[in-house]
Write a structure and sequence with these properties.
With about 120 residues, the protein is α/β, with parallel strands linked by helices. Helices cover about 40% and strands about 10% of the residues. The protein contains 5 helices and 3 strands. Strands 1-2-3 form a 3-stranded parallel beta sheet. Strand 2, helix 4 and strand 3 form a beta-alpha-beta unit.
């Protein structure tokens, strides 16, 4: 938990240095055998985010490198974006949710979204 907290602090600092901000960070602290609602591919974390911001998630991008990431978002109406970084190259060879867009990395997704 200490390492994750440090990672989140580093992320927030780096984003702030570029003029941005991170409004919310959520994570699942459970293991695969805990059968919680927040561990992907379940959508509990997405429901928490929607509730926090009081916004529907239909059409919101979900970006991930695994099928589980995409499935969790698609279950609540998000649009799937697969990145080839991390596990993404292997995931690309699997059956993906309909409409999945594929990009080389997160920066390419961000650029695409900013242009849209």
């Amino acid at each position: 938990l200490a390492a994750l907290t440090a990672m989140h602090a580093s992320l927030q600092q780096r984003v702030a240095e570029k003029g941005g901000r991170v409004d919310l960070i959520r994570f699942c602290p459970h293991g695969p055998d805990d059968l919680c609602d927040c561990r992907k591919p379940r959508s509990g974390l997405f429901h928490e985010i929607a509730e926090h911001f009081q916004l529907p998630l239909a059409g919101v991008p979900v970006v991930g490198d695994s099928l589980r990431d995409l499935e969790a978002g698609v279950a609540v109406g998000c649009e799937p974006y697969l990145v080839r970084t991390g596990k993404g190259s292997k995931t690309e060879g699997k059956p993906l949710p309909a409409g999945t867009r594929i990009f080389d990395n997160l920066a390419a997704v961000a650029e695409h979204l900013l242009e849209s």
